[in-house]
Amino acid sequence: MGKQEKRVYLEAIRKRYRRAKRADKGKILDEFCSVCSYQRKYAIRLWGCKPAKSARRSGRPSQYDQPALLRVLRKLSPIIPRLFLSSSFGLAWEVLVTDPK
Length: 101
Fold this sequence. Notes:
The protein is mainly α. It has helices spanning 3-19, 22-36, 40-48, 66-76, 80-85, 89-98.
């Protein structure tokens, strides 16, 4: 069961769990834990929390100059494969320094 399927199943079970009586909550919890392979305590915590909002990075937004960054990457594109194929960083540095491009 994938992450998205578990999230959808969690929402459906959360509603059932909140409406259920105490005797039925244990059965619902056992069912959920066996289907999703979660520990009981983790499942209880999931049901008690509010659904998470979409993750948004805190702080200032990045301010990269896109055209300038692309120009640099285009200039480095012939060198990059040689960097990863070299056996050590020293050899890669020699390629960077001695390459006339």
